[in-house]
Amino acid sequence: MLDVMDEAILTAWNSARSGSAALLDGLEKRLSRRGRRPPDEASEARKRSEAAVRALIGEAFPDHRILSASEKAESPGLEENVPVWLVNALDGVHDYKRGSPFFSVTVGFAVHDGKALKPLIGVVMAPALMEMFWASLGGGAHYCRQIPGIGLVEGPIGVSRVARASRAVVKTEINPNLVRETDELDRQTRLQREVLSFSRESSSALNMAYVASGRAECFYSSALNPVTALPAGLIVTEAGGRVGDYLGRPYLFNGGWEMLAANETLHGRFVELLNGLSKVPGKVALC
């Protein structure tokens, strides 16, 4: 008989696949339709995806609580040791709307330890790219991809060993509410001057999975929903990376929602760059 963690991992995989199928079905219909498209298509696709994810989780664990990115998560009111599922049924809505493959479904399983939510399982699936990233606490981070003509490719993943910012690939999210703010522009300018590559995509979870798998060295966001951040952050830490806020402190459900994910070697340097510092706090000088 499967224990709770094994069953939870299978449920996370299967629910992410089910939500992904709903998104792909909506995307296929969208791309085949000519002329003007209804403005709420992405919202409808998210609803169908979330319903599919919730249905599988509810069937396997009817007594567990489910929090989704479509809900307000500022004050979840969770009790100690209560199992919680975290669901972002469409992360990367701006790419999805344009028919870009850079969107994902994120499913996580967590328990509140009395102080904060502790993620135990994280799954990020990119359905249009036919790949999935996942991790369990203490079980490492993993990846699988279905490649036409080759079959299933799978195995463990780890963060890159790049040790110089000038060789680093940095990613951030597309957030219309923040993109023109002075602080955000300043951060972007500092990073672009120092790193090899800088880009914006709208799926934060997939960006973080890319850090975990060594495709990028850093991801940052000034307003990342914990429902997305905690499962994806677990994948990064299990892959050997570090996650936290812009000062390197632990990311909290009720915190400011700043997220910095990076490989171990460069994490400190990205803390400096995001804060406009030449040294990590404690012995600092403004750039």
Q: Can I get a quick summary?
A:
By secondary structure, this protein is an alpha+beta fold.
Question: What count of helical segments does DSSP give?
Answer: 7
Tell me the strand percentage band.
15-25%
Count of spatially separate domains: 2
- Computed over alpha carbons, the radius of gyration is 19 Å
- Oligomeric status: single chain
Could you list the spans in which at least 5 consecutive residues all have pLDDT below 50? 278-287
Tell me about the largest β-sheet: 7 strands, mixed
Write the CATH fold name of the largest domain.
Answer: Fructose-1,6-Bisphosphatase, Chain A, domain 1
Spell out the CATH superfamily of the largest domain: Fructose-1,6-Bisphosphatase, subunit A, domain 1
> Would you state the CATH class of the largest domain?
Alpha Beta
Spatial strand arrangement across the major sheet: 1-2-3-4-5-6-7
CATH 2nd-level architecture of the largest domain:
2-Layer Sandwich
Overall pLDDT confidence: 86
Morphology: globular
State the secondary-structure class.
alpha+beta
